[in-house]
Write a structure and sequence with these properties.
With 258 residues, the protein is of the alpha+beta class. The chain is built from 7 helices and 12 strands. The strands form 2 sheets. A 7-stranded mixed β-sheet has the order 1-2-3-7-6-5-4, with helices on both faces. A hairpin with a 5-residue loop joins β9 (226-233) and β10.
Length: 258
């Protein structure tokens, strides 16, 4: 169980102070955060739960959220961000999540563009960013992050085999410590995203943290389906893939090993 008073104390000097919203069970923390955003909830509002009954991943994929087994959290941001930088947001969140995983467990997470957290070849987490823009400016964005912590069993038909922090580390990882580290890292990455110069470093840092964005043969799924070798990210965070027909700039979709 989360110790809510300790969480409030740990985050008392952050953008999240006084804005933590915990529900033992909810449909989807992203849905909760989006509804709150439309109702005027402030920047830094956090919605987290022990269990989601209708957890969502990118592309309307379901995200299984077993009770008290993982971190399931969504953060409402009002970042005063040009809409052109919006594709960088899930990448920045991935960097924050990888840093938090390292701090809480000592494990090194791999970032599979655009939104997957892997340990080796197994998936341990994912990111879902949803936003509303107005006249070229981000009115609000919701960043949802799910990380498997205590799970020991997974469905056999997953597109990517799954794992958890406990399984990979061989010890019980604190969900509380992971959540604190995650929120603290996300605050710093959000600040970096707001600065033009700092935002330009995000694709470069993802490139250093990921084995997927350069020199990897992949299949791209989605409207720009293709197969080729990854050649890095452009300044907007889009994936470059060298195919038999030339260089493709992948703006949406997902990738798997080919």
């Amino acid at each position: 169980m989360y110790e809510l008073s300790a969480l409030e104390a740990a985050l008392g000097s952050s953008i999240y102070a006084g804005k933590l919203h915990f529900s033992p069970v909810t449909g989807s923390t992203n849905t909760d955060a989006l509804e709150a955003a439309r109702a005027g909830a402030p920047h830094g509002s956090v919605f987290f739960t022990d269990e989601q009954t209708a957890g969502r991943g990118r592309g309307d994929h379901a995200w299984h959220s077993a009770s008290a087994q993982g971190v399931y959290v969504s953060v409402l941001l009002r970042p005063e961000l040009p809409a052109v930088r919006l594709p960088l947001l899930p990448l920045a969140a991935g960097l924050a999540a990888a840093e938090a995983i390292a701090e809480a467990s000592g494990l090194t997470a791999d970032l599979r563009w655009p939104n997957d957290l892997l340990l080796g070849e197994r998936k341990t987490g994912g990111i879902l960013a949803e936003a509303q823009t107005d006249s070229g400016i981000v009115s609000y964005a919701v960043v949802g992050i799910g990380i498997n912590v205590h799970q020991s069993r997974f469905a056999p038909d997953l597109a990517t085999p799954a794992t958890s922090l406990d399984l990979e580390s061989g010890r019980v990882i604190s969900r509380q410590a992971l959540l604190i580290a995650l929120l603290e890292s996300l605050e710093q990455e959000t600040l970096a995203l707001r600065g033009a110069a700092e935002a330009k470093t995000i694709p470069q840092r993802v490139g250093l943290a990921s084995t997927w964005v350069r020199g990897r043969r992949v299949e791209v799924h989605g409207p720009q389906a293709c197969t080729g070798i990854t050649e890095g990210l452009d300044e907007n965070g889009f994936l470059l893939v060298r195919t038999a027909n030339g260089l493709m700039r992948i703006q949406t979709g997902g990738i798997r090993a080919a």
